[in-house]
Amino acid sequence: MSAGSAAPAPRARNLLIVMADEHRADAMGAAGHPFVRTPALDALAARGTRFTKAYTPSPICVPARAALATGLPVHRTGHWDSAAPWRGTPESWMHRLARLGVETTSFGKLHFGGDPADHGFARQVLPMHVHGEGWTVGLLRDDPPPFDKAADLAADLGAGESEYTRYDRAVADAAAAWLGEPARRAEPWAAFISFVTPHYPLRAPEPFMAALAHIDPGLPAAWRETPDHPEIRRLAEFWAYDRHFDEARAREARRAYFALCGFTDSLIGQVLQALAASGAADDTLVLYLSDHGEMLGDFGFWTKSVMYEASARVPMIAAGPGIPVGGISATPVSLLDVATTALAQYDAPSDDLPGGDLAAIARALDDGDRAVFSEYHDGGASTGAFMLRWDRWKYIHYPGLAPQLFDLVADPGERRDLGTDNATDACAARAEGERRLRALCDPEAVDRAVKADQRARVAALGGREACIAGAFGHTPAPGVD
After folding, report:
1. Closest Cα partner for 340 from 323, 325, 358?
2. CA dist., res. 389 & res. 242, Å (int)
């Protein structure tokens, strides 16, 4: 049960959204991790509410961020892959707040389509947008080429700096300075501060690696045990990260990732200290979240793109006026709820959006029956993946293939797929999952529309070889030498 009640509560004057990239929901002290050091996030959770069942609308960067901005699932907007970034339409919660006179400013990674698009921010500081046409290799779903960049993940890890750690420091410095400006006290504001880490490369600054030097990070869960489902096997074959890791490198990669979580937390702490020093902390709603998780070798997968908990579940914390202190909410929530929450803070209408107000959810009794939705239509996938999460269940629908089903109470490690199980409760859960899904969309029709759109874009870009020629491993950081 969440702390507090559903009674009306005061609204904050300001909104601060802090986002990391590829942060697993379990990789922070507040979530019970045995050695990850995240004092800033732990303190934020202690003065607010942590959502234990928060999910991404799509487990890959570009679609997830489009959904975060618009408050709409990507099958409704067409931003369903890494070569279809959001360019300002449909409008965002930032556009709506700007019309109300709220100062909207972003710092850091956005992963939208860049200039000359209007994203609704009055100012973008050090914005990172989609590189060129985006990741066009992911459009080649009928016959995907080998993903040659997979080896880079295993090759670049350990102690040291990367362009992303340098970039994130610059983002934190700029955001902290902005929060301290006297102008922040004049008018209400909404700021979006977005870090790239702990996204790979898994290279963490030396002090954070040293802090975990004597820790055994363990091997991945179900390491090298690719689940026996045709779509999961196809995705594992395409991404192929795991073939580049032996046991020693897997342990070092996990240590570096956990160290990066500590590094990112230190930057979050810098931002939150600046907020406190400005005198605005008591009048600011703070949201912390990530765009998706990180598999970190679990089931033989690294990075994201699958619906397992490590990839699809995200950390989410809310703190500020009207948020229960020390609260734990087990109601399923989503990044789609962020847009509605942002609008609710300023009493702006959001009836056209499917999300809920996280502040109200935090104050209410837990609602296990609430369902959240995620989808994937990107690299390596032969068919769309449509996930529903409610109560104890996670149902994943693959048009043309058998579904997956997990009972996350009895099987939190997702080791037993009930997608074809004949037990009465499994059959009932699959039927309920499909019913809920079809109330949201026609998955077969969406899958056909996505593939038709992607084939058309492949042709417009010059065909298969042109898409392959544009391959890259990760988006370069702007303004970093």
Report:
1. 358
2. 27
